Amino acid sequence: MPQYDHLIIGGGMTADAAVSAIRKHQPGSSVGVISADADPPYNRPPLTKGLWKGDAAESAWRNTAEKGATLHLGRRATHLDPASRSVTDDAGDNYTYGNLLLATGGRVRELPNAPEGIIYYRSFADYRNLRDQLKPGASVAVIGGGFIGSELAAGLALNEAKVTMIFPEDGIGARVYPPGLSSHLNDYYREHNVEVLNQESLSLVVKSGPGYRLSLESGKTVDADIVVAGIGIVPDTALAEQAGIHVDNGIVVDELLRTSAPDVYAAGDVANFSNPALGARLRVEHEDNANTMGAMAGANMAGELQRYEYLPMFYSDLFDLGYEAVGILDARHQVVEDWKKPYDEGVVYYLDGGRVRGVLLWNTWDQVDNARALIAETGPFTREQLRGMLPK
Fold this sequence. Notes:
The chain is an alpha/beta fold. The chain folds into three domains: 3-107 and 234-301, FAD/NAD(P)-binding domain (3-Layer(bba) Sandwich), CATH 3.50.50; 110-229, 3-Layer(bba) Sandwich (FAD/NAD(P)-binding domain), CATH 3.50.50; 320-386, Enolase-like, domain 1, CATH 3.30.390. The protein is 20% helix and 32% strand. The strands form six sheets. Strands 1, 2, 3, 4, 5, 6 and 18 form a seven-stranded mixed beta sheet that branches. A five-stranded parallel beta sheet has the order 8-15-9-10-11. It has a five-stranded antiparallel beta sheet with strand order 21-22-25-24-23. Strand 4 and strand 5 (86-89) form a beta hairpin. The longest helix has 15 residues, at 287-301. The model has no long low-confidence stretch (mean pLDDT 97).
């Protein structure tokens, strides 16, 4: 039975960041990682960004084993007993721990009644699968117009694929971006040879020869060699629920990232945490949160008492466009747009009750810290006050 001072369930960026922090604060301790992924930890953003722009695949690896962690790959933890501090995996092997980190991330949403072969894009294995199938001129249907779908569609188009985006919203990123920007992105993608089928819902996908036929609720059909779905994830809380740990839109943690079970922590995509600047609980599925929260969880497991009061940022690359953002970006909020050049460079503020809840820095750089400071202010702010406030 492997025995570890620190055991981590999950093999993503959060797990690797925790390993690094444990090694920094408690270099002599033993660390084990149980991961359902057959690959060791890697950076996830390149899967939809840099790897489609020519970056070497090797650049994504985190080299976790070189930090002294023992990796148990291709193993899914199926049972957690906090009382005996033990974990059992799907091969029947048992592990004991002093401290445990749940960094289980999320499970991809899947299309109902869909045939085999559809790529639900999330992992390095999915990237390899898609890259192997992507012959010159291949037609690819990308389901979803959100964060993953928009990045992936751009990356595939840059690799000479015939890309069709299918999503039910009015525009690309419509749940996040204001309507004018979202509509502009529809046109921008079309100018970059992506067929954008907005306001279209998928009704049925069937195999058709070597490829697929997609039937839309409008009556349209789309034929594609490859179908990729980027329709989000749901937090993987199954192990926590089995162990009786408090779950509510993820695994609920306190300011030290502790769960309701003794000596069990949670971090990353799966963790529901409280942010003082926003005065709200969040669950954030982005790289900055994974790295920062994972590092703090690891430090606290190693004996530190660091409060997680950080407000994570996120970013995206869409062809030649890019942005950084922080806070809650919800197109249903009051929105103040401050464009230096409409839809090319500017700042979008998201307000609720006069307080700034989120900031979108569209092709505007080095302003994340200023945006965080603005979100921490109580306000209230008017449109006139916000115009020209960033960049500082």
